[in-house]
Amino acid sequence: MRRWGFHLSAAAAVLALAACSPSEETNMTDTEESGVTDTADLPGAELNAAIQAETESLEWLEEVEGERALAFATEMNAQSLDRLTSDPRYDTLYNQALEVLQSTDRIPYVGVRNGELWNFWQDADHVKGLWRKTSVESYATENPEWDVVLDLDALGEAEGHNWVWRGADCLAPDYTRCMITLSDGGSDAAVRREFNMETREFIEDGFIIDETKGSTAWIDADTLLIATALDPAEATQSGYPFVVKRWSRGTPIESAEVVISGAEDNVGVWPARFEQADGTAYMMAIQAASFFESIYYYLPDGATGEPVQMPLPRKSNPQTLFDGQLVFSVEEDWTPVEGGETYPTGSILSFDMGAFVETGELPAVEVVFTPNERQSIGSVATTANHLLMVINDNVVGGLEAFTRSDSGWTSESVETPQNASISIVTADDHSDLAYVNVEGFLEPEALYRLSADLQLDPAKAAPSWFEAEGLVVEQRQAESTDGTMIPYFIVHAEGVEGPQPTLLYAYGGFQVSLTPSYSGTRGRMWLENGGTYVLANIRGGGEFGPAWHQAGLRTNRQRIYDDLIAVAEDLIDDGVTTSDHLAVQGGSNGGLLTGVMYTQRPDLWGAVISQVPLLDMLRFHTLLAGASWQDEYGFPDENAEERAFLRSISPFHNVETGVDYPPMFLLTSTKDDRVHPGHARKLAYLLNEMDQDVLYYENMEGGHSAAANLQESARRLALEYTFLMEELMDEDAESEG
User: Fold this and answer.
1) How far apart are CA 484 and CA 708, in angstroms?
2) For the CA atoms of the chain, what is the radius of gyration?
3) Residue 271 contacts by C-beta under 8 Å, 6 or more apart in sequence?
């Protein structure tokens, strides 16, 4: 099983954007000190002209805790909250969202550790959350008996911190020592503290790492591999650590010995531990040369020996160990031996890890699975007897169980519900225990236990939060400008006539796949109120493997935007909706997507929601983790062609004077130390000065999720759906755009 100190994935970016250091905000107190003209009194048109001419970039709004910047955010918050919370629908929507989010009927998803099932739980009485465990037998009952190991509400009150849970890494095989990660307020930067599972206390003189965006991996009970950005000299331009060290118990962290170093222009370097059921463990380091290219090293003799570079392509992702084989995916066509076989991008391959450790050479490569052009790989996990793999076919999930013999890999299909999203929740490589989640747009989450004979037995079921009868789900496709067919799902009332208020959601980046999912809040707050929901599987995502993602990289990114425009136009042409009744929503990279939709095609939208967005694409690489995303977007300071393209799509630089733009709602978080809040602040300031219809909400806690607790999540949802109802459903909300 994989035990990563840090897992580079597109979701981390999402998420994996799968993906930092102290903020790089300027220390200047106003724009006079930055060498540009103070624009506070400039009319909106003149301000916009200065931004377009690149003589003004509103850098004062990049001061995360700057007095002037926070004053602007506070004033805009007050205006937005005054408008939206005074709407008579807001309280109802908030209470509906909170009921779903805090429900004790939610499935308590678990991870398996040493034969026990572990869960992190939040509800109305436990706002920060409980870290708890139960037995497999108790979990199978209607009301499991939970043993609370750590109460974050009590811990935060005792220590005077707003602790947000970021996970635990425990040392096998007894799992009595854990490194627990806690974020103060929800930022990516977090503290790491050693926890004794027997005494259920933090170890006062144990391993403790101050707030940083680093990671750890256990070597043994008295030794850690650590990667920290505590020393700015060991941080990359993205703010991640690029030095991995070996830290022994009882010694100061400053004396930890360097194991491997990367370079300042890397994304980062992280430690990892791979282990399998027989107790064999391999220490590794991952040097992320760019967001999508990594060099992998085996660290012999408890990371005391010379690192050995592993014979993996730079665009690959180790998944797990099974039957002595290192199982990995390749994100590019790979010919490991000149003149030999070429393995196509997206393939799942393996080789004998023990043989590699012994010789340092690439062993024979075996093919586990090769997807076709309409397939992609979802989650991968191992039990004692099977390598489990979710295979998405045309964005619909299936589950395969692989075994290996002397003749190679074979698989058996596990019977799963049709037309659903499948994910592996957890699996135990010491037994046949595994749990699989199944859900759809109209089907609540259902958790199944996978039996030894590969049958899915019901384990837990989430309640239905909205009336699904009368609603239907269709999968359609739209033709993009280059002829590529773009699939999308539409959820709407059956037999309804005439255009309907429609919310279009997309992401389009970092190889993140969007699949059908159940949302009680979306169902109660939108679908039950007559709204239609659309999920677009545009390029840039991973729905059809690495090639679907790579088609929209850097200067090819306009394809992604053309794809979403094609879906929107298809919805309008088919009479599903009109531009006055169509909204587009996205977050993070999806926030950039919606920002581009706002500036490129304002005529298509009745409303735009942009959450924790990237919007200034000429400075994104200078802010927080932005430098790590240049492999996705381009290098504005190093490549003139890429800079010109980024300038052409940058929402902040493409607002036109005299255009009647649709209403826009921008949301961000002061504590977001991944995507800088300055992005949303800048566009909000510009639009406000230009007298455009813009709402802005900056949560002062919450990190990149923009919410540090369930109440704040409910508040954000209620604000968003109130905005959508006002703009798309109210009779007086017709837009000219």
Assistant:
1) 40
2) 25
3) 5, 6, 215, 216, 217, 225, 226, 227, 244, 259, 283, 284, 285, 286
Quickly tell me which residue has 């949802």 as its tokens: 717
Which residue bears the tokens 């300071």?
Answer: 637
pLDDT tens sequence across 138-194: 999 999 999 999 999 999 999 999 999 999 999 999 899 999 999 998 778 899 999
User: What does the block give as tokens for 691?
Assistant: 């007298």
DSSP 327: E
Phi and psi, residue 468, nearest 5°: -90, -15
* The pLDDT value given to residue 187: 79
* pLDDT exceeds cutoff 80 at 458: yes
- Which active-site residues does the annotation give? 588, 704
CA distance linking residue 516 with residue 491, whole number of Å: 10
In contact, 552 and 539? CB cutoff 8 Å = yes
Residue 448 pairs in a beta bridge with 436, 458
Q: Contact 329/343 with Cβ under 8 angstroms?
A: no
Ranges of beta strands (E only) in 513-577 are: 532-536
Q: Are strands 281-288 and 387-393 parallel, antiparallel or unpaired?
A: unpaired
Q: Is the pLDDT of residue 478 over 70?
A: yes
State the alpha helices, DSSP H only, in 616-705.
Answer: 630-633, 640-649, 678-689
H/E segment holding residue 564:
helix 558-573
The DSSP annotation for 134-149 comes to EEHHHHTSSS---EEE
Handedness of CA 170, 292, 24, 712 (dihedral sign): negative
- Calculate the CA 481 to chain-centre distance: 28
What is the residue extent of each domain of the chain? 12-86+466-729
Q: Left, alpha or beta for 56 (phi > 0: left; psi -120 to 50: alpha)?
A: beta
Q: Rounded to whole angstroms, how far apart are CA atoms 734 and 582?
A: 11
Confidence of residue 237 (pLDDT cuts 50, 70, 90): confident
The SS3 call for residue 604 is helix
Question: What is the Cα 5 distance to its own chain's centre?
Answer: 17
SS3 666: strand
- Complete edge-to-edge strand list for the sheet that includes strand 421-427: 421-427, 434-439, 446-450, 456-461
Q: Which residue is it, tokens 């009680």? A: 520
Instruction: Evaluate the omega torsion of the peptide bond into residue 516 and state whether it is cis, within 30 degrees of 0.
Output: no
Tell me which amino acid residue 714 is: A
The conformational region for residue 365 under phi > 0 = left, psi -120 to 50 = alpha, else beta, is beta
Total Cβ atoms within 10 A of residue 496: 14
Per-residue pLDDT of 519-532, as tens digits, reads 999 999 999 999 99
Convert 597-610 to b/e letters by CB count within 10 Å (16 or more is b). bbbbbbebbbbbbb
> Can you tell me the distance from the alpha carbon of 625 to that of 528, in angstroms, rounded to the nearest whole number?
39
Percent residues over pLDDT 90 in the chain: 85
Return the CATH number of the domain spanning residue range 12-86+466-729. Answer: 3.40.50.1820
C-alpha distances (whole Å) from 668 to each of 61, 685, 695, 703 are: 13, 13, 12, 9
Beta strand ranges found along 559-716 (DSSP E): 582-587, 607-611, 664-669, 694-699
With 0.70 as the threshold, say if the pTM is over it.
Answer: yes
**Residue position matching structure tokens 């978080």:** 669
Q: 């957890």: which residue's tokens?
A: 426
- Euclidean distance between the first and the last CA atom of the chain, given in angstroms as a whole number: 53
CB 61 within 8 A of CB 73: no
- Crossing angle of helices 67-85 and 88-102, in 10° steps, is 100
Q: Are 504 and 583 in contact (CB under 8 A)?
A: yes
